[in-house]
Design brief:
mainly alpha; 3 helices
Length: 66
């Protein structure tokens, strides 16, 4: 896989949230975040950079329509 995987810290920096908020939302409110990447056999919380970029684009376009 050539896509960069983002950690909660990485995603927090992009979304300007705390890593703790990212971790909590990933477990309790996953719809508030981009879709997670689930590596088989691992419990790590990760996101593919490509998925995050697409999610951000989609949400910015939705905001522009309002």
């Amino acid at each position: 896989m050539t896509d960069k995987l983002l950690t909660p810290q990485d995603l927090a920096e992009l979304l300007r949230l705390s890593p703790e908020t990212i971790k909590a939302d990933a477990r309790r409110n996953p719809d508030k975040l981009p879709p997670r990447f689930k590596r088989p056999g691992s419990n790590r919380i990760l996101w593919r950079k490509e998925d995050v970029e697409q999610w951000l684009l989609k949400h910015s376009q939705e905001d522009a329509k309002r």
